């Protein structure tokens, strides 16, 4: 069995049908040192119980997934979304504090798409900026970094009006880097002709909260949300991408988050094993082994 | 029945199952003044016969679809692609010359994706630049404009490594505007946070060969290639987009090209009627009526 790279982290979305306890067990048993959990499962297990399990596991906590979904017009729905993000910030702080040294209190933010019936993409993007400003003080007070994630433009209308790294960085620029950062996910960004310049900017500005590796292949799945592949199984040049991220000085965890019905239908231990193998071949050769910091 | 806007052009892909003769009939019967044909159907009808039909119809010719697919490594396949593009250039010149005043000898270029098994997107993009340079003299000699079309990033790996308007403009910059221009299609570009700046640049540099309007809606069709909608049926802000194009001084045809199984399964006359209605509501109010030039 391949020994997992020390910086590999499994995002629970890769093994979506696990409880927190199962996810921790599977990841630990594989010799992986880091994990990122999803809110739904954490809430099902209970936050305190999840915190205890993370502390007992000795794993690092890489990211908490996820906040956002705050593009609604002002009103009760928007207020509810903002309140829920405050809860997510609290969860992030608690889980990261329970993780091993090198854990990161980063809340991945998927901002949301256009509100139902709206064509006002400019307005939706402005409301993202406003929501980040509203949440930043609570994040700062809890030592949590909001990790804005630009999603692939094919999700622009229904999942994230944030589509490029520069857009995320322009919003982040109004805040301290430890309060608002960005998530750099190969699947979402690989097509961008200027992506390496933007990655360099993200590094220069101290904003890289998480580096996520996930491959792209066509034809896309009929549900494009579930069209992700193990690193190395698709067309992304992980050598070039990973070198660009490494060149910024990023030494944190590298997360694998695979939304795929086929992978979800795989036994979780087997999905983790395949993740380790793909990572070893496609990503690890271009990563330093420096301790996660 | 709505009188079609004088600048509306029907791209034959909207009524894909028509012959050239049928397409011309349906478009003319609806009172539309302009058409763009596809190579497959033109070749089936014969180029000379198609030229004659266009001349007899009194329609303008808006674009010829399409060339490109030239991202292959040097070798026989690439040579064949380049040769085929030379034929497409010749077709474009002949058909546009047969069209009514205001016709445009514009060959829409879909550049192609990554070659099978390749992860070298940088190389593929360089070969696009090389191919354009190779074809430009033949285009220039025939008075044809190569209309580079950036496609939505979800097509980056299998259809077009050209994903943004700036990328297309950067390639075009090495050539005269009448030789290499760009196709501005709302469906492909609407998500880009900087798209209006890029449209302004395209106008300033005299590169807008064609403005195409087509709507975006989710969930996407299972085959994302066929996920297009009549203008007004989705989330694109055609008011803002069309005003941005108009502000550049573009006074040419506005083409509707709808790849959609549902629309293809509609009677062509009915599909054209719905196109006219959608165009009238979503696009026409923001267009000048100035004669096409």
Task: Give the key terms.
293 residues; alpha/beta; eight-stranded parallel beta barrel; 11 helices; 42% helix
Structural features, described:
- Chains A, B: Keywords: Carbohydrate metabolism, Isomerase.
- Chains A, B: InterPro entries: IolE/XylAMocC-like (IPR050312), Xyl_isomerase-like_sf (IPR036237), Xyl_isomerase-like_TIM-brl (IPR013022).
- By secondary structure, chain A is α/β, with parallel strands linked by helices.
- The first copy, chain A, has one domain: Divalent-metal-dependent TIM barrel enzymes (TIM Barrel).
- An 8-stranded parallel β-barrel of chain A has the order 1-2-3-4-5-6-7-8, surrounded by 7 helices.
- In chain A, α4 links the parallel β3 and β4.
- In chain A, α4 crosses α5.
- The longest helix of chain A has 23 residues.
- The mean pLDDT of chain A is 97.
- The interface between A and B is medium-sized, with 35 and 35 residues.
Distance between the termini of chain A: 27 Å
Largest interface: A-B, 35 and 35 residues
The CATH superfamily of chain A is known as Divalent-metal-dependent TIM barrel enzymes
Rg of Cα set of chain A: 18 Å
Taking pLDDT < 50 over at least 5 consecutive residues as the criterion, the unreliable ranges of chain A are none
Query: What is the percent of helical residues of chain A?
Result: 40-55%
The count of helical stretches of chain A stands at 11
Main beta-sheet strand count, sense and barrel state of chain A: 8 strands, parallel, barrel
Keywords (chains A, B): Carbohydrate metabolism, Isomerase
GO molecular function (chains A, B): isomerase activity
Pfam families (chains A, B): AP_endonuc_2
Organism (chains A, B): Microbacterium amylolyticum
